[in-house]
Design a protein that fits this description.
The complex is a heterodimer of chains A (232) and B (196). Chain A is 31% helix and 22% strand. By secondary structure, chain A is of the alpha+beta class. Chain A has a five-stranded antiparallel sheet with strand order 6-3-2-1-9, covered by helices on one side. A four-stranded antiparallel sheet of chain A has the order 5-4-7-8. Chain A is elongated. The termini of chain A are far apart. By secondary structure, chain B is mainly alpha-helical. Chain B has nine helices and no strands. The two termini of chain B are 33 Å apart. In chain B, 48% of the residues are buried. The chains are: A alpha+beta (232), B mainly alpha (196). At the A-B interface, helix 1, helix 3 and helix 4 of A face helix 2, helix 3, helix 4, helix 6 and helix 7 of B.
């Protein structure tokens, strides 16, 4: 086996057994996975050790997870399948509590923002809502549609995932507008090619993505809030 | 049904074999978009996978979040599961462990937990009632038994808790290089033993 370790060498390339045991650092794990993607023998080695060591998992005493875990899974899958069922599934939003004070504060901030930046045409605005009509984010578009400010009305439980903002023009695929922050307002510059799409009836949506954003250029995680742009 | 009694070997119990077949069938249905099948797999396996995540992460909220990811991954990638290459239980445990280890590494700066301070001794196979009778498990235990006690302990801790070489070395109070050579030598010897 070409990947057997050399006993007397201090630095070596990690072998499959070490990967499966889980002793490697994050960087070593990523590097190993990259090698494995190119080398079917490494993949087979990993499967070999997963099967052998997997038996140890039988020692771990089962612990029932709390019921909301399944509710979240169901909701995320409903969102993925692209049907409207997410909006009917209140369980997904159990965690999303929004205090009325937060909503009031956001409304004030938005009004203050609009007052400071008088626009020649009525400004575009979108309330990005979870189910039940609760505002999760408020987006206000700059006067020439070249940017927008996203203000969070509540801090969603994102747990080390990134929040990515998408523009969906009617009948078009989602286009990424970049990452936003769960806990503070963010100003986003709209790429020139997307400025035309910033119009009434276009939808803004926020999805949960891996750190750094969607690897595919399309939303890969659940959509946690969305809303249509309208003229104020 | 406890579908997680370990991979079904050729002479595994009939119950295990049936549970394994049910899981394979359910995964095939999930690949076809059957949500009821996902629910069934969740019902039969989530307590085990949650425990696997908890063992690695030592944090309920983190483990819940990872468990969610695990079943969403199962939903998306059930089509890549190949029953000719792995048992369904092995596959599910591997997904849960990989997600948990990645999460653990991502939050590596967090403070050490009390369990970690307790060292590795609690990983010794103590309670008889936890010891499963699958052929695969027995074979592994026999081969681990041929290793030096501390080496076998390090291997078990690594697998069950997903800790790095550095942490293992610290816990067992040996230099990093020593720990690496223990694990690598153990892997070679385990392989020889398992293939006899």
């Amino acid at each position: 086996m070409s990947d057997e370790p050399t006993m007397d060498s201090d630095d070596h390339r990690p072998v499959a057994g070490e990967y499966v045991l889980g002793v490697l650092s994050e960087a070593e794990r990523r590097a190993f996975e990259a090698r494995m993607a190119r080398d079917p023998r490494l993949r087979a080695e990993v499967e070999y050790w997963e099967e052998r060591f997997g038996a140890l998992a039988s020692e771990v005493k089962p612990i029932d997870p709390p019921p909301h875990v399944w509710a979240n899974i169901e909701a995320a899958i409903a969102a993925r399948s692209g049907r409207g069922s997410l909006w009917q599934n209140l369980s997904f939003w159990r965690w999303a509590t929004i205090g009325s004070a937060a909503v009031a504060a956001v409304s004030l901030m938005v009004l203050a923002y609009i007052a400071r930046a008088p626009a020649p045409s009525p400004p575009l605005i979108a309330k990005l809502e979870a189910s039940g009509g609760q505002a999760s984010f408020v987006a206000t578009v700059d006067s020439k549609n070249t940017g927008m400010t996203i203000v969070p009305a509540s801090v969603p439980a994102v747990n080390q995932r990134a929040l990515e903002l998408w523009l969906i023009a009617p009948g078009e695929k989602p286009q990424s507008l970049g990452l936003i922050e769960p806990g503070r307002p963010v100003h986003i510059a709209v790429p020139a090619r997307l400025v035309q799409g910033i119009a009434p009836q276009a939808t803004l949506a926020v999805s949960l993505e891996p750190p750094g954003g969607s690897p595919t250029g399309q939303p890969t995680g659940p959509v946690i809030a969305s809303g249509k742009l309208t003229n104020l | 049904m406890d579908a997680m009694n370990g991979p079904a070997g050729p002479s595994a119990s009939i119950e295990q074999d049936a549970a394994c077949k049910q899981l394979v069938a359910a995964l095939a249905r999930i690949a076809g978009g059957d949500r009821a099948a996902l629910r069934q797999v969740y019902r039969d396996t989530s307590a085990k996978l949650f425990a696997v995540c908890m063992r690695i992460l030592h944090d309920e909220a983190e483990a819940e979040d990872v468990l969610q990811d695990v079943y969403i991954t199962v939903w998306r990638r059930a089509g890549t599961f190949d029953p000719a290459r792995a048992s369904p239980i092995t596959w599910l445990v591997a997904v849960a462990r990989n997600r948990s280890i990645d999460r653990l590494r991502a939050g590596a700066a967090r403070s050490q937990t009390l369990d970690e301070a307790a060292g590795v001794s609690d990983d010794a196979p103590s309670a008889l009632d936890q010891i499963e009778s699958s052929d695969e498990y027995r074979r592994l235990m026999n081969c681990l038994g041929e290793l030096e006690l501390r080496h076998a302990g390090a291997v078990r801790s690594a697998f069950l808790e997903g800790v790095t070489y550095e942490e293992l070395a610290q816990r067992m109070n040996v230099p990093l290089g020593t720990m690496k050579s223990w694990i690598r030598r153990s892997l070679l010897r385990l392989r020889e033993c398992l293939e006899q």
